[in-house]
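Whether sequence alone determines local backbone shape is best considered at the level of individual chains. Part of our work consisted of pairing the sequence of a single chain with a tokenised description of its backbone. This step matters because it turns folding into a mapping between discrete strings. For completeness, the protein is quoted in full, as a sequence line and a line of structure tokens:

_____
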Amino acid sequence: MVTALILSNPLGAQCLLDGAVPRTLSAIALETISGGQWVTFSGTALVVSGVESFQSADLTAIAAIDNTLCNGLAINNAGSNEWVTVATRGAYLCAAGEIVSGGAQVTHTMSGTVQNILNTGSVPTTTMGPTPIGRALTTSASGTDLYALINLNL
């Protein structure tokens, strides 16, 4: 599927609350990734066989264009084969792609915005539903310049 990805926030990732301990990790970007873009980890299966064989470069990131897959929010811009820092916790301002309700579980859309998870019970057991990325701390309508504060929990 081809999509015109937009950033979660055109100013990049902006953390307002990090729980006093930033929860980030580093990965190698397999393509150009912008700060504020949702990412998924990809790469060769079975790279890690034990603690002694794990290296940070074993984590490789691509843009998340499928709302069933998401590992975090890119913190910095990175070109292909460059390091990108990925946030898994913290509260970030994210563009609202649809109505976002304070307190609701949210997912990322395939265009880089966030929206409420409307009904997790309607997804057939043989398919994956949208990945919950966290909970909305503020409410927002959808729109070009409308944002919600999202507490990540990935």
